[in-house]
From TrEMBL:
Protein name: Glucose-1-phosphate thymidylyltransferase
Regions crossing the membrane: none
Family from the record: Belongs to the glucose-1-phosphate thymidylyltransferase family.
Domain Nucleotidyl transferase positions: 2-236
EC code(s) of this entry: 2.7.7.24
Metal-binding in keyword set: yes
Coiled-coil region list: none
Cofactors, names only: Mg(2+)
Species in which this protein is naturally found: Streptomyces phaeochromogenes
Keyword set, alphabetical order: Magnesium, Metal-binding, Nucleotidyltransferase, Transferase
Top-level EC class as recorded in UniProt: transferase
Function of the molecule: Catalyzes the formation of dTDP-glucose, from dTTP and glucose 1-phosphate, as well as its pyrophosphorolysis.
Length: 295
């Protein structure tokens, strides 16, 4: 499976923070925002990843992550001239996707929960069309809302419904088979001129090939589209890291635990950052490493 992180957009709701910087490069407590969606794809075992962003920000991402080889993955970059909807990512990334299935994640989403790598592996293994990830929310009227049956198959899908049929919000993580590229190509743009991801999902729903993995009790899903939500995400990460003594979405540690790099390589990456607590943490992880599940 290939991976795509959609990190475009102008981040207007976060101005003036995003006046000269991509939203996905803003700090979320102790690491750049892009680390959080990148870590999810890595936990899913995906090592071939494309980051889609604006021309103005492309070199910033390249400077931060390079080609990904330092953490045992491959990262390339594609330009989005202007935001034209989430589903445009499949057209921009068509060459990257090739004949593979694809996981798409939005660049401003945080996912965290126990055994997440196993959850992702199970969802990927049963992929037959479209696999969405649902999260129960208090006010589903603000989200795309899914209704599912006892087997996890989608029954209905509505965008910001007045009378929601469930409390399951569709999160910013999606798994698709290779047919998603053709589906995106045939979409009719919305009134805003955008290719809507909900329209993609409805095609799979009509085919009876749309499922949902529920992320329930013990999981957290946060997006960071406003100043308040950005602060809340940072506070969540800070609280857990300080209480538990572990780092959330530490891509170097995940690379180690997924077998992408060796303990020696992880230690070297930490040594390069030795003046920071992040670097010290990586060296400690490498020195005490015992093989086991990533998360």
């Amino acid at each position: 499976m290939k991976g795509i992180i959609l990190a475009g957009g102008s981040g207007t709701r976060l101005r003036p923070l995003t006046g000269a910087l991509s939203k996905q490069l803003l700090p979320v407590y102790d690491k750049p925002m892009i680390y959080y969606p990148l870590s999810v794809l890595m936990l899913a075992g995906i090592r071939d990843i494309q980051i889609i962003t604006s021309k103005a920000h492309l070199e910033m991402f390249r400077s931060l992550l390079g080609d990904g080889s330092r953490i045992g993955i491959s990262v390339d970059y594609a330009e989005q001239e202007e935001p034209r909807g989430i589903a445009e990512a499949f057209l921009i990334g068509e060459e990257h996707i090739g004949d593979s299935p694809v996981a798409l994640i939005l660049g401003d989403n945080v996912f965290h929960g126990p055994g997440f790598s196993s959850v992702l592996a199970t969802s990927g293994a049963r992929l037959d069309g479209c696999e969405l990830f649902g999260y129960p929310v208090k006010d589903p009227r603000r989200y795309g809302v899914a209704e599912i049956d006892a087997e996890g198959l989608l029954v209905s899908l509505e965008e910001k419904p007045v009378k929601p049929r469930s409390h399951l919000a569709v999160t910013g993580l999606y798994f698709y088979d290779n047919g998603v590229v053709d589906i995106a190509r045939r979409l009719t743009p919305s009134a805003r001129g955008e290719l809507e991801i909900t329209d993609v999902n409805k095609v799979y729903l009509e085919q009876g090939r749309a499922r949902m993995t529920e992320l329930g009790r013990g999981f957290a899903w946060l997006d960071m589209g406003t100043h308040s939500s950005l602060l809340q995400a940072g506070q969540y990460v800070q609280l857990l890291e300080q209480r538990q003594g572990v780092r959330i979405s530490c891509i170097e540690e995940i690379a180690l635990r997924m077998g992408f790099i060796s303990p020696e390589q992880c230690h070297e990456l930490g040594h390069e950052l030795k003046s920071s607590s992040y670097g010290t943490y990586l060296m400690d992880v490498a020195e005490g490493y015992v093989a086991g599940p990533a998360a």
